[in-house]
Design a protein that fits this description.
single chain, about 400 residues, alpha+beta, seven-stranded antiparallel β-sheet, five-stranded mixed β-sheet, 11 helices, about 40% helix, globular
Length: about 400
């Protein structure tokens, strides 16, 4: 199986400056390649520019600008061009599917934070000494950077990426042939219902509290954002004020803190569930559709007037869904289950909260409130999230019967 490891880097001041320069030069290469594609498309000849032709120009670019482009790894620059090529492939795929296209954009200084090295030993080298506390990773043009390796790396290092988050630097290792860490069987199965009032509810009736990381830090984040809005971003072209940089750093630090809290909670919850159950069923949620804003409904008789669509209430619900981090949790759960030899079954979420687990009656009136379920046919009453988890487990059982 494949697994990724993320470690904190501890570069010196000179190395941090070199890492920042590497990001800036790769961003410049990305934007230059994007501009070439835009110019080729608007040219009367409609010349098509693809990855192969742009990659063939790298040798000339490196010899023309040895101070900026020539000192970095050739393979990492190819990976940057492939990144642009994937953006265009996704753009054309969305166009053909009739979705919102989203044409690739130029990357600003705050929107290009990762450089990938496709192969360990080509432009970078991971120090794989298993018991050496002073682990280092070498990047071409930067040198040997200290790594805070808090756990051993298993498998064969396939790709290496360097990533900037705020003022901190990380190295991300993608490894192949990672051995599975199978857990002993428990003989238990469970359905998991995701929610807002409770982060998750199992079919056994256990509720996992919602950490609400974003809401707990909302006041501090709003204060930092107001401070950021007080200071002008630029005094002249190409420069930022010192106070604006400091305020922007505070906002980024708070966002990083919220993200770490959310991911930490997802890891701990997923690990507890994987250790407790052999088969885990959950709703196959389409979160992108769930957080879509309601469309405006104009009144035909009155120009410029729209009917009430509940946009404010929907926006509050969307914030709560994003704050819960369901997608992050389900991805972590699937990864941990695969590593432990557990089975995860996604099922359709349709009417899971409206179906009575006793008699099977489906009605919107069964859901009395957000927390209470009472069947109008048989009178069965229970917690609504628990009912949803029971229905999810029942559907997973039907899926297993069909599969066998």
């Amino acid at each position: 199986m494949r697994r990724s490891y993320k470690f904190l880097l501890r570069p010196t001041g000179r190395q941090a400056g070199a890492l920042a320069a590497m990001l800036a030069d790769h961003r410049s290469l990305y934007n230059g390649a994007l501009q070439e594609r835009r110019d080729a498309y608007t040219h009367p000849s409609k010349t098509k520019i693809r990855y192969g032709s742009q990659s063939a120009q790298l040798s000339g670019i490196r010899s023309f600008d040895p101070e900026r482009q020539g000192r970095w790894s050739f393979s990492s620059q190819q990976a940057t061009l492939r990144r642009l090529n994937r953006s265009f492939e996704a753009f054309f795929r969305r166009v053909q599917a009739g979705e919102k296209p989203g044409y690739p954009r130029f990357k600003g200084a705050g929107h290009f934070d990762t450089v990938e090295f496709p192969r360990d030993g080509d432009g970078c080298r991971w120090d794989s000494a298993p018991h050496d506390p002073l682990t280092r990773v070498r990047f071409q043009g930067v040198g040997h950077v200290r790594v805070h390796r808090h756990r051993p790396v298993r498998g064969r290092v396939k790709t290496v990426s360097v990533k900037r988050e705020g003022k901190r630097w990380f190295v991300v290792l993608s490894c192949d042939d990672v051995p599975a860490e199978l857990l002993p069987p428990t003989g238990a199965v469970a359905g998991i219902d995701m929610g807002i009032a409770h982060f998750a509810t199992t079919s056994d009736g256990e509720h996992v509290p919602n950490p609400r990381c974003g809401r707990k830090n909302a006041e501090a984040l709003a204060h930092a954002q107001r401070e950021l809005d007080r200071f002008p971003k630029r005094l002249k072209a190409g420069t930022r004020t010192k106070k604006h940089r400091r305020a922007a750093g505070k906002v980024a630090k708070l966002h990083a803190k919220i993200s770490r809290q959310r991911v930490d909670h997802a890891h701990k919850t997923a690990l507890a569930i994987v250790r407790s159950f052999d088969v885990i069923a959950h709703e196959k949620l389409r979160i992108t559709n769930m957080v879509r804003a309601p469309k405006a409904r104009p009144v035909p008789e009155r120009e410029g007037v729209c009917r009430a669509s509940g946009a404010a209430a929907k926006a509050a619900l969307n914030r709560s869904i994003h704050d819960a981090g369901w997608g992050c949790f389900l991805g972590i759960l699937a990864h941990k289950a695969e590593r432990a030899g557990r089975v995860v079954i996604p099922v359709s979420p349709r009417n899971t909260s409206r179906t009575c687990p006793e008699c099977g009656h489906v009605s919107g009136e069964n859901r009395v409130t957000q927390a209470k379920f009472e069947c109008v046919a048989c009178g069965f009453a229970a917690n609504a999230d628990h009912v949803g988890a029971l229905n999810i487990l029942h559907r997973a059982g039907l899926a297993l019967c069909v599969a066998t």
